Fold ATP-dependent Clp protease adapter protein ClpS.
Amino acid sequence: MTRPDGEGRTQTLERSATARPRLYRVLLLNDDYTPMEFVVHVLERHFRKAEQEAELIMLAVHHKGQGVAGVYTRDVAETKVAQVTAEARAAGHPLRLIAEPEGDA
């Protein structure tokens, strides 16, 4: 890209490479009190999962202790964690979610 420098000459502007934002996984954590139906509801409503996919994720949470609800930029992941946590508390459920950088174990 070029632009006049005020003296009739043009300057060449360099474009800097924009780094992709780091992605975060939103994980649902298992507990012994949140109903499975509520977890499926959360996955469908907040993470836009189809019923069958939501049930598979819920079963992973139940059997493996956690399941990936989705992968997002940091702000979106943290917002989803806050929204779902608020809905769970309002419904009287202790459902826990965390957002962790993708690629970390």
